[in-house]
Write a structure and sequence with these properties.
The complex is a heterodimer of chains A (230) and B (671). With 230 residues, chain A is an all-alpha fold. Helices cover 64% and strands 2% of the residues of chain A. A two-stranded antiparallel sheet of chain A has the order 1-2. The chains are: A mainly alpha (230), B alpha+beta (671).
């Protein structure tokens, strides 16, 4: 049965085969395309494709909007503060749930900072430096983005422990995350911004990740206020 | 009583039902061993108690660790699989992200952020490009049905005219965010026939073919990006539903596509499947709760008044707080009455802190992806912080049956059911797929799969996590991603992509103990820095695994036999031929009745040691004998064997597997 089916398919294919590039719908300024297909009996020239890959990567890097740069720069400072706050959790938190949440935030935002720094550097833009403790130096060191804590609020969190830390951490991190979501909305509301796939993806990911986390933190805070152990 | 050596013609026609009856009759007369009509099987009873858990010796050290980097020349590691072909992208798509896959006949449709690539896979060793259709939009999630191809557009730069120049206005009538529909009746020349714009664009989508409706298909649209301005798409509202009931948040979109007239495709409903998916509404404590608090207060507990309601301060907070007061007065050792008094006077202040600040009274606003399993009427929705189980028997009005959340899960990404529809596996795309979440230091419960059993058809119960056990470098984006079942009969085995963690094949038949049985991996795209790459999707289709490699094109991979998977099991899997596969629209696998199918079950009985070795050998030699025969002689022998297996089923360690074998044999005899 299998063999018969394969033979049938082969028969169909011989008559239908026709390699080429599909037409774009009318009016589409599709880029001119030169196609080489393995069907020609030629192995694809991988060296040439790799050169093309590099050339496209370079040209993609040249296309960005000033709002993209501001977003990346500001978000690094914003993320750094979340790390600063979260690294206090292992010593100060009163519950494992908060320690776990903080560890996840640290992990996620460190990776995103590395990605944003790389994005900026590849475009010859100054990238804020972030110490392992979450302190920002260099360009962007004094940026205060929406949702970020004031120095006084930070000091209060740093001085707290146990249940006070847990509730303060949640009560601060929720608006902090909301600030990041606002930054994404502002970016998307800017003409010509977030056209590049990397910026769009990063911004969308930050939006969905932090929105989910806001909801989770809200539930944790509610549970804590209700006094029910998690 | 023993059955006659030749079953009557009517029993033969009646198939398994009659066989079951015959089996039941036979049981009375048969002990564990029996003989009938030239088949003399030894006792099936295993020498050990209970089935042996699946075991396989994984290579050590794990060859996935330390692979050399490269775009097209990275080092590779393969265990129990063989790469049949590696096909780089066609030139227009080099350097642009390859995304999801869909299958029809002998074609693979591969999404790309710049369009759709159609491959002819008649010869899997040499996929041949049919069309490289340039039409940019992320993520270009693809599905096919009949003569229609559906493609998701979510990014801000997608254009109605498929142009590559992007859209430089925040509000524009040139932008496409939603579903593009192509007519592929002439596969060489897809025709862009329609689109349906949606408020949040389409990150992914799911095609649902209702078994009771042959005129239409339905598309569930999941869009996770922010809501478009209403000036761009009228009716789109980004406000919360509490502020505006028309909010595009907290809902999915259902598009109905008339198959004969796809131009008339439109949104027919926007079900709010997340309604009430939050902590239960606040209400004051019940009288019993208040009594309990008062009792606790009398016994010396610390009681806070939060929002006017008394609450007992949990013990785990009391100790550290008391210790703080000890330290504050410069003391050491255990807290004294003085510290208790200090804590008591601090309670109002603590209550204020705990009561202050905003709460986020919100569930998910969207799903990332929904997998429908029309044959069982269920869907698995992976929706931000939740996994949902949906009843889709009315496709326009999916209804939530259950919701689970998990503090180890960051972002619920996608769902896969087992073939029976009694288990569901959710993946957690922690970090969005761009992050390296498989490093040595990343917990095995984060960015993993979570496996649930479905109890009573409407309730999910957590069983275990699965994550690839090989540490990846910081240069490799890696997290759980798309996969599909492999139709190994009698077992739940799936292949799953892990971006630059490669692809992994694992057995989750025992939902509490998933076991990896094969893998393929490449080194990073770039050794110096993270560059996006790896397997976006890995799906089994008609005998092979197809993997959409983000940077490297299309990989075709075949399974190799191992101690955890026999040649017969692979052959049985290959016998399942589909003519259509959208992995988010899960088909129910049915196995043709073949000798391979019967032998696969025998191999499983042997591997799990639920049948005696002598019995396994006996059945195998009978099967060999039967296969060498033809016509009526073969039929009679197979049928007799079927009856005997049925008769011995309860004496084996796995009666259910015995009955599967008996059914397979009966079906084989009837062919």
């Amino acid at each position: 049965m299998h063999l018969l089916r394969t033979l049938l398919i082969l028969g169909l294919v011989t008559s239908a085969a026709c390699a080429g590039t599909g037409p774009s719908p009318s009016g589409a300024p599709a880029e001119p395309v030169e196609t080489t297909s393995p069907a020609d009996g030629q192995e694809p020239d991988l060296g040439r494709l790799e050169a093309l890959y590099q050339a496209r990567a370079d040209s993609a890097r040249a296309q960005y909007h000033p709002a993209d740069v501001d977003f990346m720069t500001g978000m690094i400072a914003h993320h750094a503060q979340a790390i600063l706050m979260s690294l206090w959790a292992p010593d100060r938190a009163g519950s494992d749930a908060i320690r776990t949440l903080a560890a996840r935030i640290t992990n996620a935002q460190k990776d995103e900072i590395a990605l944003m720094q790389r994005w900026l550097r590849q475009r010859d833009q100054p990238a804020p430096e972030v110490s392992p403790e979450g302190r920002v130096s260099g360009h962007g060191a004094h940026m205060h983005m929406t949702g970020m804590l004031t120095d006084e609020q930070l000091a209060r969190l740093e001085a707290s422990t146990g249940v006070t830390f847990d509730s303060l951490y949640l009560a601060s991190m929720i608006p902090h995350h909301e600030g990041a979501v606002t930054m994404v909305h502002d970016l998307f509301a800017t003409d010509g911004a977030a056209q590049g796939d990397l910026v769009f993806k990063l911004a969308s990911d930050i939006q969905v990740d932090q929105s989910s986390e806001i909801a989770r933190m809200g539930r944790m805070l509610d549970a804590m206020r209700a006094g029910s152990p998690r | 009583m023993r059955p006659t050596s030749r079953p009557s013609p009517s029993a033969r026609r009646l198939g398994t039902g009659a066989l079951a009856l015959a089996g039941a009759l036979a049981v009375a007369g048969c002990a564990a061993s029996s003989s009938m009509g030239g088949v003399d099987l030894p006792s099936v009873a295993p020498s050990t108690d209970g089935p042996a858990p699946l075991r396989i010796d994984a290579p050590s050290p794990d060859p996935r660790e330390g692979l050399g980097a490269g775009l097209f020349d990275a080092e590779e590691a393969a265990w129990n699989v063989r790469v049949v072909s590696r096909t780089p992208p066609e030139e227009p798509f080099v350097g642009q992200t390859n995304s999801d896959l869909a299958f029809k006949d002998h074609y693979v449709f591969q999404g790309n952020y710049d369009g759709v690539q159609i491959w002819d896979i008649t010869d899997p060793t040499t996929p041949r490009s049919v069309v490289t259709y340039v039409c940019p939009a992320s993520q270009s999630d693809v599905s096919v049905y009949g003569d229609l191809l559906f493609v998701s557009g979510e990014g801000l730069s997608g254009r109605l005219d498929c142009g590559a120049e992007g859209v430089d206005q925040q509000i524009s009538d040139e932008r496409l965010r939603g579903i593009r529909i192509f007519d592929i009746s002439d596969i060489d020349s897809p025709e862009y026939v329609a689109n349906v714009q949606t408020c949040r664009g389409s990150h992914t989508h799911t095609v649902l073919k209702d078994p009771n409706d042959d005129e239409n298909v339905y598309i569930y649209v999941s869009g996770s990006a922010p809501v478009r301005p209403s000036e761009e798409l009228p009716g789109c509202v980004g406000a919360l539903p509490s502020d505006d009931p028309n909010s595009a948040l907290f809902r999915i979109e259902v598009i109905r596509v008339p198959l004969a007239n796809p131009e008339a495709a439109e949104i027919v409903s926007s079900p709010r499947i997340f309604d009430d998916l939050v902590a239960p509404p606040e209400h004051g404590p019940a009288p019993a709760d208040l009594e309990a608090v008062e009792r606790a207060r009398e016994e010396g507990a610390f009681v806070l008044e939060i929002g006017g309601d008394p609450t007992v301060l949990p013990d785990r907070y009391v100790e550290p707080l008391l210790q703080q007061f000890v330290e504050r007065r410069g003391g050491t050792g255990a807290p004294t009455a003085q510290d208790s008094a200090a804590l008591r006077s601090y309670l109002p202040q603590l209550a204020e802190q705990m009561g202050g600040g905003p709460t986020a009274d919100m569930g998910p606003t969207q799903c990332h992806d929904i997998t429908v399993y029309p044959d069982v009427g269920l869907a698995g929705g992976a929706c931000e912080g939740y996994g949902l189980l949906l009843d889709i028997s009315d496709p326009v009005n999916p209804r939530r049956l259950d919701a689970v959340s998990d503090s180890n899960f960051s972002y619920w990404h996608s769902a896969t059911f087992d073939n029976a529809g009694t288990k569901v596996l959710f993946s957690d795309e922690w970090g969005g797929g761009g992050g390296p979440k498989c490093r040595e230091s990343d917990p095995m419960e984060w960015g993993a799969d979570a496996i649930f059993t479905i109890e009573d058809g409407d309730r999910m119960e957590f069983q275990s996590y699965f994550k690839i056990p090989a540490a990846q470098t910081p240069q490799e984006n890696c997290v759980a991603h798309n996969g599909s079942l492999i139709p190994i009969p009698g077992r739940d085995i799936m292949v799953q992509s892990w971006y630059q963690g490669g692809l992994s094949i694992f057995d989750w038949t025992d939902p509490a103990n998933p076991v990896e049985i094969a893998f393929h991996d490449r080194g990073p795209v770039n050794a110096e820095q993270m560059e996006s790459g790896g397997a976006w999707s890995a799906y089994w289709y008609d005998g092979y695994i197809y993997s959409s490699e983000i940077a490297r094109g299309l990989d075709v991979i075949e399974l190799l036999p191992s101690e955890a998977l026999s040649e017969n099991e692979i052959e049985a899997a290959r016998s399942v031929q589909l003519d259509l596969l959208n992995s988010q629209g899960q088909p129910r696998f049915e196995w043709p009745h073949t000798f391979a199918l019967a032998r696969a079950y025998v191999d499983q009985l042997e591997r799990s040691r639920t049948a005696s070795q002598a019995w396994v050998d006996g059945v195998r030699s009978t099967l060999d004998e039967a296969e060498a025969m033809s016509g009526g002689a073969r039929r009679d022998l197979v049928q007799t064997l079927a009856m005997q297996v049925e008769a011995q089923a309860d004496a084996a360690g796995d009666p259910a597997k015995m009955r599967l074998l008996a059914d397979a044999l009966a079906g084989l005899a009837a062919m």
